Structure formats: structure tokens, C-alpha cells
Amino acid sequence: RCLALHATRLPGSPCPGVMLVLRDVSELRRLENLRRELVANVSHELKTPLAAIKAYAETLRLGAVNDPEINLTFVHRIEEQAERLHELILDILQIARVEAGQEAFEICDVPLHELIEECLAQFADLAQSKRVELIGPPIDQEIFVRGDEEGVRTILNNLVDNAIKYTPADGRVTVRCTIETSAVMLEVQDTGIGIAEKDQARVFERFYRVDKARSREMGGTGLGLSIVKHLSQALGGSVGLDSTIGKGSTFRVHLPRAMSGNK
Ligand code: ADP
């Protein structure tokens, strides 16, 4: 804990003395450290797409604009980098809110089976284009967790998105749910590239990527798993990972189980 000590001379007091005030500032310090660290990471991450946009625009201005082919390619690249900036900003805002404990949750019974169905439909085209098979839980399974619908949706989407991204063609991504005594276990398993043991804890840190160039190429912001970890914990759950290089990864999220509706 961090304690701040203030000594104040008592004004107008007949006896000379001081008043000592002890204040717990741990939470203030924690938020200040988070803010400082986030600003340092964020400025670095934002500079890359911004520098690319400026370089493309400058090359166009210096003459490339007159070559229709280069012109179009560069405009596309500017659009791609602008999209990357947009995603980064949305993720940064979310992580700042969740880390500071300021995400406004609406706690209710969330139909996890419906969110999984929606998520698999959303990623069906991407999976198909990569020739990755997507497998969901049995269709008659009804599973409710106690949490915030948008938060649970973000956890699920980030894990499935990663599983597809890091699984080469002809691989498989499987989403499963298991009801436990007081929790529901959500598993997202892939047959992808896997994560070395030394990186397994670090992938949950913000902006940590095992292979920076590869992840950037895949369009990641480096914040997905950090958001998953903070959201899971803020919703009273946890996240874990089992992985073997070259074989694949399984991410497991435990979330509080709703007291009714599960079958
Ligand atoms: P990114 O946006 O880069 O995917 P994440 O925070 O979601 O950021 O993931 C952090 C890093 O963890 C990724 O860059 C990648 O190296 C690794 N990773 C995440 N999910 C998987 C997975 N299913 N298989 C292999 N590596 C993964």
C-alpha cells in the first residue's frame, strides 16, 4: 500500500503542535502509473501508421500523383493505415476504460450460445477465405453467463478472430462451453502456429506480440488479449492458455454462471 503523510501546523492552537494525516493513495498511484505507461506505449504505436500516411501523401505530392497506377496503390495504402489507426484508437480507448475500472457494465443473464452463433456467423467468410474450419458447440446447448453482454461479446470475438488469424489453411477452430459448479468455461481451440512457453504469459500484456511483423501484417493492434484478460477479470472471471508450438492453442475463459436457463 502507498500512504501519503501530510503534516500541518495547527493554526491558532494554544499548544504548539502538528496534525498528521495519513491518506491511502495506492489507487491514485496505480491509476497514474497505468496512465503514464499507456501514454508511452500508445504514442509509439500511433506513430507507425501516422508516419506511413505522411510518407505516402508526401510521395504523391512530390509527383507520384501523376502516375495513375502508383496513385491508386498509395491511396489504398493510406486507407489501410487510416483503418489501422481507427482500430487502434478504439482498442486504446477500451483498454484505458477497462484498466481504470471505468467500463460501464450492464450485468444481466447473457445467452452465451447466441453470442457464439452470432460470432461464428460473423467470422464465417474470413474462415472460409483462409480455408479454416469453424466448429461451434451443439446447437441445442443453452448456456447463460452472468455478465455484461457487450463485454462477453468482445472476449469471444477477440479470441475467435485470433484463432482464425494464427491458424494456417486447412486448420480448425473449435468453440466449446462447459457448465461448471459456479462458472461456465468457454474454450476457443485452434490448430494454429501455437505460442512458445516463454511467451504465454506475455501475450496478455498490452502491445506484446510474439512476431511483431507477422501480427501487424495480419492487422492486429496487439491489444486484443490484454482486453480479453481485463474484461474477464472485471466480470469476475479469468482467462488461461494452453499452447504448443506448431500444434495450436486453447484459450479458456471462466465466467460466472447464471443461476437459471442453462441446459
Ligand atoms: P494481435 O492484435 O497482435 O493479435 P493480441 O493481443 O490479440 O494482439 O495477441 C497478442 C499476440 O499473441 C499476437 O500478436 C500473437 O503473437 C499471439 N497470439 C494471440 N492469439 C494467438 C493464437 N490463437 N495462436 C498463436 N498466437 C496467438
Folded structure, characterized:
- Helix content is 47%, strand content 22%.
- It has 263 residues and is α+β, with helices and mostly antiparallel strands.
- Strands 4-6-7-9-8 form a 5-stranded mixed beta sheet, with helices on one face. Strands 1-2 form a two-stranded antiparallel sheet.
- A hairpin with a 3-residue loop joins β8 (238-244) and β9 (248-256).
- The chain binds adenosine-5'-diphosphate (ADP).
> How are strands sequenced across the largest beta sheet?
4-6-7-9-8
State mean pLDDT (0 to 100 scale).
89
* pLDDT < 50 stretches: none
User: What's the assembly state of these chains?
Assistant: single chain
Helix and strand content put the structural class at alpha+beta
Radius of gyration computed on alpha carbons: 24 Å
Bound ligand species: adenosine-5'-diphosphate
Overall strand count:
9
Catalytic activity: ATP + protein L-histidine = ADP + protein N-phospho-L-histidine
GO molecular function: phosphoprotein phosphatase activity; phosphorelay sensor kinase activity
GO biological process, one term: regulation of DNA-templated transcription
Domain Histidine kinase: 41-259
Brief write-up:
With 263 residues, this protein is α+β, with helices and mostly antiparallel strands. The chain has helices at 26-61, 68-99, 112-129, 149-165, 197-200, 212-217, 224-234, and strands spanning 3-9, 18-24, 107-111, 133-135, 144-148, 172-179, 183-190, 238-244, 248-256.
